[in-house]
Structure formats: C-alpha cells, structure tokens
Design goal:
This is Flavorubredoxin. Helix content is 31%, strand content 23%. The chain is an alpha/beta fold. Helix 8 packs across helix 12. The N and C termini lie far apart (53 Å). The structure holds MU-OXO-diiron. MU-OXO-diiron binds next to helix 2.
Length: 412
C-alpha cells in the first residue's frame, strides 16, 4: 500500500493513519522489532464526515494529507476520540484549528484529559457512553464504555451498518505492515500476544468487561489503533483475549489457590527459610505452593508466574542495607500485572539490620497488594529449629489468609 494514500476499508470508511516502520521502542517499555502504525479512520456520509482518532504529532502531515484527499475540513462534523494517549491524540489540536466547527466525542473520563492534552479550554465536546448512539447520514455509531483498556478514559464504538468495531488499543499489535489487513500481512501473532501481555494483561478484568459488550455485537471487522485491521477471523482474536484473561495453569484446578515463593540466597539461610515456609503453606489442603530461585529465572517466566499467583512471598537477604538487584527486578515486573486481589508478604535472613524485607513490603503496599498484618519473617543469620518452625507457621498463616481467612487489611 502507498503510505500517502487513504485506503477504503469498508464502504465510505477509510484508513487515514500513519505508518512508523522505524520505531524500535514504544512507551519506554515495549520492543517493537516490526515498527508500528497509528491507525486513524475517516467516515464519509451524505451529511458530513467523522474523523475517528488521530495520530502521533510527528506523523500529522501524513494524516492531514490523507484527510485532504477525501474531504474539505468544513465537512468534518465530529472527531471521535477513543483514547487520548499522545500516539492517538497528537494531531487533535491542529485538527481542531483546521475544523473548528467539529464536535469532539469522548468518554466522560476523558474530559480533564482533553483539556490537558490540547491546552485548550474552549473545545466543543460531548461525552458519550454505552447505549448512546450517533446517526449521521448512512452510518450509525453505537458507543461502548470500555475503561482502563488501558487508560481510564478508553472507549470503543461500533458502526452498525458495517458490523465494524473501533476497538481503541484493544486487539492492537505493534506491527507495521502496509498491507494492513490481517489476511494480507505477515505473521503478527507474536506481536499480538506481546501487546496483550504488556498493555492489556494488567487490566484483564476490564478486558472481560469489554468482551461482555462486544459479545452482544455481530463483528465482521475490528479496526484497532495499532497494527493490522482484523477482518478474516475477528472471533479468533476475541477468543484469544478471553482465554488469556481467564487463564489458569492447566494442572491446577480453579478450587486451588496458588502461592509462589520467590527467594534469593547467599549462604542458604533464606533458602532454608523459604523451604520451611513452603512446607507451612503446603499444609493447607487447597493451596498449591511453589518455590522459585530468583538467581536463575527468566523475566518472562517470572511475569507469567506472578500473574497466575494468588499469593506472592518474596525472600531476600539484606546486603549493604538493601535488597539485591534480582529482587528489584522481580518487583519491577509487577507493572505488567493485575495486582488487585493478590496477597503479598516478605521474609529473609540478615546479618545486621534486615532492611530489605521491609522495602519489599513497602513496594507491595504501594502497588496495592493485600499485605496482611502479620509480622514479616526476619531471622538473623542461620535459622535454628525454633526459627524454622516459626517460618513454617508463617507460611501456614499466610496460606490461610490467601485461602480466605478473614482478617482486616489496611490497603492504604
Ligand atoms: Fe496506543 Fe494507549 O496508546
């Protein structure tokens, strides 16, 4: 496909987005080996034009050039913004200048963001949500409230006449391929999963809520904000999102709670504690506990294990009044997780002061883990028999809490 020409994706709906084949890191955290695209769309009707999302600021020339090939700015009646992250909102200020008569359509949660991103208090906008619809000429657009996918203000919409879902970032991939449609581009499956894992998985409860809305629709095409437009088997991708958002390890029944015990050890002391804690946790029938040595685990495996865990225990020695780097690496993976509902605690052997354990707890609290009010298990140097028994009891009590024992937890 020619990068400079708009492409009609269904009758009177055009791709007017921009391709970014050279980007290699997105949003600091994502690798983009295949580049990306900032998808935007234009809907033409006999009563005027709707612009659906915009592009990153650096790419606005392409975007405006494509609009100008399809209509004049005074034909634009609405600018529908599903998501105000700058990769999609970058051209809004200039678009509003060129089409000042256009009304911006956003979710209610986007109101303060629209002002902040445009630095313009005088934008004509209207808020929309599920059950509201817009009819313009031959097209009817139903709005769908799909927040936290992956910002609070995100939404989707559906063009009734074309069975077309504008999904926002949902079902996106950082995968540049100018052939654009899923049935024409190369194999983007790795990029689709990678995008889900990094962008949507921390919000999988909200993904499931969005799917409940999508399930009421007959969807023939998904026009996402990044990567291929999906038209061949849209339900294949919808079902992948459902599966990934519901996933549990195959060998563990849904009646079992999973406790993962990560530890780091220099002289085997913290490891001995971890093993006693493991025994205590395992003494509760419905608990499936596992031990992981942080010195030898790959990051992606850590993330997957953390995601599946109901309870997370982290054990570390204190070295130079701090936790060693692998512990911080583990804690930094938490940004990829849905933390709500996960219970956390910490333990470790120490020589002088043992600050590392409390540092872990502080981090867990700031991430909104449920941290039960039991004393973290800290033992000076080599644990003796009595101390190992305390570790066993600590593991058992933690497991009872993960299992549903009622306790008051201060989440602040
Ligand atoms: Fe593609 Fe969340 O911006």
């Amino acid at each position: 496909m020619n990068h400079t020409k708009p492409l009609e994706i269904v009758e009177n709906i055009y791709f007017i987005g921009a391709f970014d084949p050279d980007i290699r890191t997105f949003d600091i955290i994502m690798k983009t080996a295949n580049g990306s695209s900032y998808n935007a769309y234009l809907i033409k009707t006999s009563e005027g034009v709707i612009i659906v999302d915009t592009v990153k600021l650096e790419f606005q020339r392409d975007f405006f050039s494509k609009i100008e090939q399809l209509c004049s700015y005074d034909e634009i009646k609405y600018v529908l913004c599903h998501h105000l992250e700058p990769d999609h909102a970058g051209a809004i200020p200039e678009l509003i200048k060129r089409a000042p008569q256009a009304k911006v359509l956003i979710s209610p949660q986007a109101t303060p963001m629209l002002k902040a991103i445009t630095n313009n208090e005088n934008i004509d906008f209207e808020t929309v949500w599920t059950n509201k619809e817009l009819k313009l000429g031959e097209k009817t657009i139903k709005f769908l409230t799909t927040p936290y996918l992956h910002w609070p203000e995100t939404m989707s919409s559906y063009v009734v006449e074309d069975s077309l879902l504008f999904s926002g970032d949902v079902f996106g991939s950082h995968y540049y391929d100018s052939r654009l449609f899923d049935d024409l581009v190369g194999d983007f499956s790795y990029a689709f999963k990678y995008y889900y894992d990094h962008i949507m998985r921390p919000f999988k409860t909200y993904v499931l809520n969005a799917l409940k809305l999508y399930d009421k629709l007959d969807i023939k095409m998904i026009a996402t904000l990044h990567g291929p437009i999906i038209r061949e088997k849209p339900y294949k991708y919808i079902e992948l999102y459902r599966k990934w958002s519901l996933d549990r390890p195959d060998n563990i029944s849904s009646n079992n709670k999973i406790i993962s015990i990560f530890y780091l050890t220099s002289y085997k002391n913290t490891r001995d504690m971890a093993e006693a804690i493991f025994e205590g946790a395992e003494s509760i029938k419905t608990i499936r506990a596992s031990l992981y040595d942080l010195a030898s685990i790959e990051e992606q495996n850590m993330i997957n294990i953390l995601e599946e865990s109901d309870g997370i225990l982290i054990g570390t020695p204190t070295i130079n009044a701090d936790a060693p780097k692998p512990v911080w690496d583990l804690l930094s993976c938490m940004m990829y997780l849905e933390k709500r509902g996960k219970t956390g605690q910490a333990f470790g052997s120490y020589g002088w002061s043992g600050e590392a354990v409390n540092m872990i707890l502080d981090r867990m609290k700031s991430l909104h883990f449920r941290v039960p009010p039991i004393e973290p298990m800290k033992i000076r140097l080599i644990p003796n028999e009595d101390e190992l028994e305390k570790c066993y009891n600590f593991g058992k009590e933690f497991a009872q809490i993960v299992n549903g024992k009622m306790i008051e937890i201060d989440m602040n």
